[in-house]
Amino acid sequence: MSQPQPIPARTLPDKAAVARALRQFLPPAGVLTDEEDLRPYECDGLTAYRKLPWIVVLPDTIEQASRVLRLCDERNIPVVARGAGTGLSGGALPLEDGVLLSLSKFTRILEIDPENRTATLEPGVRNLAITEAAAPLGLYYAPDPSSQIACSIGGNVAENAGGVHCLKYGLTVHNVLGLKFLTMDGELITLGGKTLDSPGYDLLALLTGSEGMLGVIVEITVKLLPKPEYAQVVLAAFDSVEKAGEAVATVIASGFIPSGLEMMDNFAIRAVNEYARAGYPNEAAAILLCELDGTAEEVAEGIVQVRELLLGRGATEVRASRDEAERLKFWAGRKNAFPAVGRIARDYYCMDGTIPRKHIGQVLTAIGKLSQEYGLPVANVFHAGDGNLHPLILYDANQPGQLARAEEFGGRILELCVAVGGTITGEHGVGVEKINQMCVQFTQEELAQFHALKAAFDPKGLLNPGKAVPKPARCAEFGRMHVHGGKLKFPEMERF
Amino acid sequence: MTNNADISQKLADAVREAAANHALLAIQGNGTKAFYTGALSGTPLDVTGHRGVVSYEPTELVITARAGTPLAEIEAALAERGQMLGFEPPYFGEAATLGGTIACGFSGPRRPYAGAARDFVLGAKIINGKGEILRFGGQVMKNVAGFDVSRLMVGAFGTLGVLLEVSLKVLPKPARELTLAFEMNAAEAVKQMNAWAAQPLPLSAACHADDTLYFRLSGTESGVRAAQAKLGGNAVENSERFWREIREHRLNFFQNGSPLWRLSIPSATPPIDLPGKWLTDWGGAQRWLKSDTPAADIRQETEEVGGHATLFRSLNQKRAPLAVLSPGLISLHRQLKLAFDPHAVLNANSG
Known about the structure:
The structure holds two protein chains of two kinds. Chain A is α+β, with helices and mostly antiparallel strands. Chain A has helices at residues 15-23, 35-38, 62-74, 127-134, 153-159, 166-169, 172-175, 203-207, 241-253, 266-276, 296-312, 324-335, 337-344, 360-374, 402-419, 435-441, 444-457, 472-484; strands at residues 31-32, 55-57, 79-82, 99-102, 109-113, 118-121, 139-140, 176-182, 188-192, 216-223, 225-226, 230-238, 260-265, 286-294, 317-320, 347-350, 378-382, 391-395. In chain A, helix 9 packs antiparallel against helix 14, helix 10 crosses helix 13 and helix 15 packs parallel to helix 16 (435-441). In chain B, a hairpin with a 5-residue loop joins strand 6 and strand 7. Chain B is globular, with a radius of gyration of 21 Å. At the A-B interface, strand 9, helix 8, helix 9, helix 11 and helix 17 of A face strand 7, helix 7, strand 9, helix 9 and helix 12 of B. Chain B: Pfam families: FAD_binding_4 (PF01565).
């Protein structure tokens, strides 16, 4: 049982016959096989990786989704589940010989329970739609990934999505109470519900962030929190990224848990000032946005103390938002940072390492040096309070070699994160993107344990194969290639 | 005994040897929660010698300690720096270790508002059933590389691996805590707890015992004062002791001989019509029942409201470590157990 069973050798089944079998129980528009219909599914939010799926299915009901899985299981056809397709690590990258199972028709909010403060949702419900539905009750759903307008809760669970507010309110894993998921052989499993825990192993935690490798999530119950009475943001400018990094550690150590603590470097500041008229100090080497929420009294007391802490750490300027309009204006720049950078560069590559907060200054300095080495600019805009970096590497895919250089640069950043005691991904997932860096973070035995765990749920290895956990052979190959500084992609290699 | 010792190799050797010989091992801390797990089969594997805080950096809000470290030692180290464990873990005996605390995964009164034991686990080093030392998660706040094996260890009662080290996120101690008491019956209390939980108040515990609703506020001086003005009630003297007695099951309620059941149910569920004595904690989400009612009746009534019931303490009943699961879940549990412990070496129940 220690080694996962390999995918049985098979010849590709007849596509027309499989499509016919699927149309037996799916509506005609729910089975796509023509290239023009398949094209929109060729990539997720990580557009550098594209593959045309073999067949796309769009079931309407759990029963239909279950039958799709059963059919694929019987015929040894791999399956990739897809939510809104906003993921940033290629977790929903389709397979040329596999079925792409889209959950985009599962968009109903099944229940908002005001007494127990829970929402029960189909996986295709958009993250922001949960908060909108709960707002009349004075409640909201806390995790707020920056793609929250578009991303769906099913994908949030599959990736354990974070966001600005998870510093205080936790990641997706801290806010999910129950799940229903389908195993590869089509069985419906229920975990938890509206209770704070469920019997047996903590499969709820295990499924969260499992990147579609263990099961297909078809229903989610989340907890809703009371909307804070009041929130206020402090904007602090620094003349070096090191000082800003130290200020982050100071705020955290002082006993505050801000509801958000974000950092932007000069490149990002200039980009958003131009794009969103954010009004950030243009000359600052870095700014911090520190939001406190709670009762009006708590916030007022906290803002005074945070201001002093930041000034004590060498802030050249500290502004507190004077009203709700100004608070939103302070945030508008941060929220528009990615599109603002996107306007400057033809393409950008968003990284996602997490490090101990005390190393922020040091790691940003090292990233700056790497930026010079690779000749590619970097903008840093990230969740500093969590130590979760998001360096944006700017490149131009039309220039030969730039994408490969950007990827190698990104890989170096992730290895740097591991070297200072951090991780290669804080909230975006491994997907196909960081599969090589998994070899840096984990030993062969640890990877083998992941494979055994996967096999416990999916003995044939048909669910989202090739993602998240590399095969030992791939790591051996990566290690060798890494030493020689060659290209990092081996699409032809056998993967998990 | 030294305060700081790393015996992980010795422990791993013992597991490897047991796996080779198809022998059974019973992981042993200080036994403070043996009442819950029941008797285990096999040779004891004493992990109490594997102890000591490996690293603690208050500015990172992270502590990493070996499994045999006494919980009291960890909490004392945190208190010195004005920090605490957010899940307010029950000890059930002074000698409780970190490993036992995480393996059982119990959480105290702060759980509904701050999070459970599993919510604070950032990483773990374990020995799997093959005797391999493996590390999952880490010491950073956000980490989605690989499956979340460290959280899977919480509440797994050592059946998937021997815990060696655990990294926990810690929280700053609130500047001020205040407990308010209100006289009311259980039905009113459940309504009140849930109504207040829906409002932006600095809540940190809510329980109902002996016709009194106890409500704890934690936060800044001014925030707690403002909330008190809004809620009214009577301030409770020496409330730290009260919450400790709830957490440790030392209140009179827990003292008589009937079996003690734990019901985990949706928090707003009205009082359940089962004979016995009740105590409501976790803002309504955890109900304690002292009752001689047959287990099947208690389980059925609890499932009807969307929850599950566990026999927590009993003088004369044998108990299974895991609650009742659906057939699909049982199969997944078996496969997972095999994935981590293929020779079924670790913590087999003898009951």
